[in-house]
């Protein structure tokens, strides 16, 4: 096990590159995404072993729901439902004390998917060693718009009372701490609207590997990078 001077308490992940990996390896998309989910379960265990307490993963964005084909979305929905009902995955979560928290506008996804994910959330709610936040039906701009609408709809709200803390409280992601480290795979070097409120002082790590190829050594490299950073928070 590597020794790190500083360990990020909250790691946020954009697991990008499943489709490109699928094409390059001549795998069916279903198999590629299935491997991606399996990789994320392993990633969660690795992160916990290094001392990470909170993990957030972008599973499906609002843009994905609007722009991707029905066939691809159907694959993702089937896999997320299967994952949520998989006894082996639940046993792994239980063994590692990992709690699942589902965040996003789940009205955008089919009811069976919502039911399965919320069921997993309920079954893991007493686990305390690692919090895994699954963002589904989530977009950063959509999250802020959601907060603004909630604030406007509160007729008791006074303009003088609107500040950072209040806006944060109205976000769908209100319960998320700021991300210490954000990892994006596949070589893309942008956040694409990921956690705009929680990423202002995040350290960013872009890995030149597609998500299914991302391994424990790659996570070690990301954590080592984080450990070398001087975080000034505007000072």
Overall description:
With 235 residues, the protein is of the alpha/beta class. The protein has one domain (10-138, 178-228): 3-Layer(aba) Sandwich (Undecaprenyl pyrophosphate synthetase). It has nine helices and six strands. It has a six-stranded parallel sheet with strand order 3-4-2-1-5-6, with helices on both faces. Helix 1 packs across helix 2 and helix 2 packs across helix 4 (70-85). The longest helix is centred in the N-terminal third of the chain and has 22 residues, at 29-50. The radius of gyration is 18 Å and the shape is globular. The relative contact order is 0.19.
What is shown here, in short?
The chain is of the alpha/beta class and 235 residues long.
Q: In whole angstroms, how far apart are the ends?
A: 33 Å
Number of domains: 1
What percent strand? 15-25%
Low-confidence stretches: none
Topology order in helix (H) and strand (E) letters: EHHEHHHEHEHHEEH
User: How many β-strands, per DSSP?
Assistant: 6
Estimate percent helicity: 40-55%
Shape: globular
- The strand line-up of the biggest sheet is 3-4-2-1-5-6
Number of helices: 9
CATH class: Alpha Beta
Task: Quote the CATH topology.
Answer: Undecaprenyl pyrophosphate synthetase
Structural class call reads alpha/beta
Residue-averaged pLDDT, rounded?
95
- Architecture in CATH? 3-Layer(aba) Sandwich
CATH superfamily: Decaprenyl diphosphate synthase-like
Radius of gyration: 18 Å
Major sheet attributes? 6 strands, parallel
């Amino acid at each position: 096990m590597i020794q790190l001077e500083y360990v990020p308490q909250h790691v946020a992940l954009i697991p990008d590159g499943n489709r490109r990996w699928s094409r390059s390896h001549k795998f069916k998309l279903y198999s590629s995404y299935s491997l991606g989910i399996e990789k994320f379960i392993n990633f969660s265990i690795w992160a916990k072993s290094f001392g990470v307490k909170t993990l957030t993963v972008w599973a499906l964005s609002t843009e994905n729901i609007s722009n991707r084909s029905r066939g691809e979305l159907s694959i993702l929905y089937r896999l997320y439902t299967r994952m949520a009902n998989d006894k082996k995955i639940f046993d792994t979560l239980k063994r590692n004390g990992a709690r699942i928290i589902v965040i996003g506008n789940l009205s955008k996804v089919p009811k069976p998917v919502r039911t399965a994910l919320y069921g997993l959330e309920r079954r893991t709610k007493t686990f305390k060693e690692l919090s895994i936040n699954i963002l589904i039906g989530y977009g950063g701009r959509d999250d802020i718009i959601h907060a603004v609408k909630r604030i406007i709809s509160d007729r008791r709200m006074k303009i003088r009372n609107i500040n950072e803390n209040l806006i944060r409280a109205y976000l769908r992601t209100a319960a998320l701490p700021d991300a210490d480290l954000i990892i994006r795979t596949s070589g893309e070097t942008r956040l694409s609207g990921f956690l705009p409120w929680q990423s202002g002082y995040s350290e960013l790590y872009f890995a030149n590997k597609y998500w299914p190829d991302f391994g424990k050594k790659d996570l070690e490299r990301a954590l080592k990078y984080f450990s070398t950073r001087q975080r000034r928070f505007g000072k």
